[in-house]
Every structure is written in C-alpha cells, then in structure tokens.
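== Folding task for one protein ==

=== Format: two labelled lines per protein ===

==== Paired sequence and structure tokens ====
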Amino acid sequence: MIGLTWHGGTVAEITLDRPKALNALSTAMAEELARVCAEVGASRAHAVVLSASGEKAFCVGADLKERNGMSDADLLRQRPVFRAAFGAVLGLPQPVVAAVHGFALGGGTELALSCDLIAAQPGTVFGLPEVSIGLVPGGGGTQLMARRVGPAKAADLVLTGRKVAFEEAVALGIVDRPAPEGGARDTALETARAIAANSPIATRAAKRALRNGAPLDLVSAMDVEDNAWRTTAMSADRREGIAAFNEKRTPDWPGV
C-alpha cells in the first residue's frame, strides 16, 4: 500500500499505492505510511518525493467504505492512527515535494499540504469537502491551507467544501511547481534532485527555520533563523561547501 523507491541514493520516493481504491487511506495504509516516513526520516535521504500510483487520483482522502461500518468508538480509535500518519509526513526532517495528479480530495489535499512544495499537472483537482459529510478537515487542512493561501481564501475553500481545478490552484498558490500534462512526478523528482544537490544539513536547517519561524513575531523568528545559521556554520557541510567553491568542484557533502 505504501511504496518506497530510492533515486541515486539521496532522493527517497514514498508512493501511495492503492490505485483501485483511488489511494483512499484505510487504517492499515495510514499505519504503513507512518512507518515508512519514520524509516525515511531516520535515513540519509537529502530530499523526499510523495507520489501516488494509478492515473485517476493522488488520494481521495479517508476510506469512507471502511468508515461506513465504524461505530463512534471505532472512529475515535482510528483518529490517533490518522494523526500519526499525517504528522509523520509533516514531520519529515528532509524537504518533501508532493507529486499530485488527478483527484486530491480531503486527506489527499492535506497530505499535499503537509509537504514543503507541491508539484501538480493539468487535470488535478484539490478540495477539502469534509463539511459536506459532517466533519472538518482533520489532517491539518484548516491550519495548513490557511498558512499557504491566507485565512480568507482558506475559509472559502473549507466552509464551502468546493473543488479547485488545476488552474485556480496555481493562481491561489496551492501549487508551487506547475507541471505539463502527465508531468507532476517528473517535475517533483527534478525539484527533489535540485534540493538534494545542496547540503543536507543546510536544507534541513532551512526547513526548520521556515516552519518554526512562520507563526512567530519577526524578532523571535530572526532568533530561529540565527539558531539555524549556527547549526550550519559549525557543520562539516559548511567547511566542505566553502572548500569545494574555492577548488571549483562539486561538493561531497558529509551530511554532519
């Protein structure tokens, strides 16, 4: 249900692989996603791509067929499993690029929002339709969408539950890397390889600074940035980067 592929030893690709169910998230799939993310997070991967198999959908959210037979107690027992899965993607220390195609609804949009960058192709449809079935987005949708497009635009999307086609998603800023027809995965991999060519210590520290500084006042956020700078300045990666620049060669990053 969750695939893991390595590209060149530095880019890990995590794949949602339940195409017959449009990659809907079952309890078992959510558990496996959290496990694979933990494996990748502890690895020496420099960057990560989150993709999906099949032609029709990136992910249509929670498996509502599974939930149809659940009691309230069952749903509450499933909740921490789902929170752990979405949290595992959001918490990956490496920069993560989503490769989105087809339908990305509910939890599918939330998985994409949990990544640092989103690549998508024409025909992709985003949406947070949870209010139409008596729920609110529970995988970070209300918080991550607001941080990405602003509170008012997020309110429009969340409260109406409407679907957003590719062109509007680009205009809103949901999509960072517009791809050509059928090219979301290639664009995401290209972006991840570009990230992976840089110092892994620096890109991880930059990700932390971007994430942790965003909700703070400017003075506090500058302290977050300073801590990230100090982490990189004392690293072997910084010494290798400067040496490689002066010797006019490609850096061989120690990653420490």
Q: What stands out?
A: The longest strand covers residues 2-7. The domain at 200-247 is CATH 1.10.12 (Lyase 2-enoyl-coa Hydratase; Chain  A, domain 2). Residues 236 and 255 are 7 Å apart (CA to CA). The chain has a mean pLDDT of 98.
